[in-house]
Amino acid sequence: MAGLRATSTSKPSRQIHRLFIFGVVGFGSEVKTVPSPARSINLFPVVFDPILVVARAFFGFASRSIDASSLHWRQKLSISLLQALRKTLNPRHTFAHSRQRLTGAAVKDYCHDHGLEYDSITVELPEHTSGHDAHERVPCPTLHLVTPANAPLDGPILLYVHGGGYLNPLQAPGHMPFALQCAASCAATRLIVLEYALSSEHAYPVQLIQMVAAVKYLFHQAIPGATIDAGMQPENLIMAGDSAGGHLIASLLLHVVRPSPYAPPMTELSGEQGKQLRAVALCSPWMTMNTTDASFTANDGNDYLSAQQLDVFIRLFEPLSTEVWASPIEADDAVEAWKAAFPPALTATASRAVKGPVAKRMLVTSGAGETLFDSCIKFGGELLRADMLVLDSDEKVALVTSKELVLTIAPDEAHVQPVLDSALGYAHGRSMTAVDQFLRSV
Description:
The chain is of the alpha/beta class. It has helices spanning 2-7, 12-24, 50-65, 73-88, 91-98, 103-113, 172-185, 206-220, 244-257, 294-298, 307-317, 334-341, 373-383, 394-398, 417-423, 430-440, and strands at residues 30-31, 46-47, 117-122, 142-147, 157-161, 190-195, 237-242, 279-283, 362-367, 387-390, 405-410. It has one domain: Alpha/Beta hydrolase fold, catalytic domain (Rossmann fold), CATH 3.40.50. The longest helix is centred in the first third of the chain and has 16 residues, at 50-65. The protein starts with a helix and ends with a helix.
């Protein structure tokens, strides 16, 4: 894991600062303006007390240090700091700060600061008679192209879709090193980061429309610097995403087998030979559109993601509970849709005409300490029928390399723990190691 080893040489104080920035997206003592108005969010000058945050983080870390948790002290520190920030700031505060730097600027600045080759493409939306409200203009998505350090000339492309409840842009201190490590693990020749519309301005299904357009573009158009003057083959595309990014990838996979009325059918993918993604990796995917699962109560003190935050995300995303692309584990047709996307293993007597899975291999990670734990288990265990691995030993982690469809559970880890680990330069978390080994094996 060379990429992470390089990161881990940073001074502890710098790593903590990066996590602090990740948690609040560049806090100063006061923010008086926010770019672009937002729906249903009242914005006002934000003042917070950093001493209160530090004090709360210290007491949280101290209590975690004496518990029986299997987490490394850096992981405990990251969760304690984010919990302190969330207790000090309400969602409106966090929203105001998040808009200081949107995804495009965050990726571009990160690449500049780290000497990485960067380019971007604005993707035109394909013509389609949509069921979406014609009065709302769907903005064109942007693909941010990053060439990882020491990237091979010939290899797959990694498309990364960031999380943030569809409300927050990419958080470079955590998302970028995690995405780059994923790219290094699968020896990707290029990392592509999708910039999609945020729910404060554009609700569901805008993001799905953009995702379909972006992936179709990759299949039909040559990207700058590519070795071929044509679009890529599905077998050369790997997708990875965290939280809401995992939801958006899941929505795309369901659109393949159950085309939505909002975007053109994804005929480039079907599960047939030559029309399958090489692999998909979802880190703590946000799959439920409610906050009633028992894990929201059971893990409220363990995770930094609260039911209150998720309620805000849901309200602004405006999902339709009857549509599987919005509610991928709770819609009435969710079971059948996922069975179509990842059919049960074929028997020796099965017809060869039966299609295979949309992706050849898939990994779903979840922390046992996260509030979304129950929904991740329902998704991976019940709907995907994936092999389940509890990552309580190095031997269990190593088993991900032999699985085609696998759900991993990391004891005590919080929501998107690998992204937090990446912000602190910690390379040895259970989920982080599982993602690394899985991608190395695809």
